Amino acid sequence: MSIFNISLFNANRDNYVYVITNTKTNKHIIFDPTDAHETLANLENLGGEVSEIFLTHRHHDHVDAVEDVKAIFPQAVVHGGSALELDIVEKHLQDNQEIEILDGLTLKTILTPGHTLDCASYLVSFDDDDSQFLFTGDSLFSMGCGGMFDGRILDEYWNSLKKIKALDDEVYIFASHEYTLANLAFILAIDPDNKKLQEFHAEILQKTQEGIPTYPTTLKIEKEFNVFLRCDDPEFKKLLGYDDTKSDVDIFGLVRHKKSHFILQ
Ligand SMILES: [Fe+2]
Question: Between β-strands 49-54 and 27-31, what pairing exists: parallel, antiparallel or unpaired?
Answer without folding.
Answer: parallel
